[in-house]
Predict the structure.
Amino acid sequence: NAGVTQTPKFRILKIGQSMTLQCTQDMNHNYMYWYRQDPGMGLKLIYYSVGAGITDKGEVPNGYNVSRSTTEDFPLRLELAAPSQTSVYFCASSLQGAQNTEAFFGQGTRLTVV
Amino acid sequence: GIQVEQSPPDLILQEGANSTLRCNFSDSVNNLQWFHQNPWGQLINLFYIPSGTKQNGRLSATTVATERYSLLYISSSQTTDSGVYFCAVVSYTGNQFYFGTGTSLTVIP
């Protein structure tokens, strides 16, 4: 019963490097989300997807890209990493849209950009 | 977006004590969840409670949607209850959760 799985758990990047945060869910959920959590704060939405092939921006999308080629996977791409992207990243999924159903979160990826 | 305020911001309890955490929100919502973020950073679902009252063991929650608040009750607290408790809401027309800044709970033996 894996739920939402994120990899890696921790990563240190140098300024200007790129990386992909992986997220996969095994609950056959249609909706998937990427959030970031800055120290002492709640989570903010980066991107979300309502199904394979469909993505849209959230509150803080700059500096990130996403794709959704399958129902299960929703990777988040960081291009040209900056110190402002130091954060904890959470992937989440829900069966229907955020309005209607419970969302489940992965264990997070702690990213440090130096 | 919706403004979510949680109180108190910090709480220190003796083991066995009870507490009430509050979440106020600025607009009508169609979804409200309570999460516990444990010391390892993991977000754990506590309640999906857009309205009404639910109980799960020592925890219970009540949402009064018409008055735009929700309460989380923790009874007979244990050290494992320590962590940050977040309230998150979704508006009727929205597609994302808006999180409060959380209540940091420390339970001391």
User: Anything to note?
Assistant: The mean pLDDT of chain B is 94. The radius of gyration of chain B is 13 Å. The interface with chain A takes residues 1, 4, 30-31, 33, 35, 40-43, 45, 48, 86, 88, 90-92, 94-102 of chain B (CB under 8 Å).
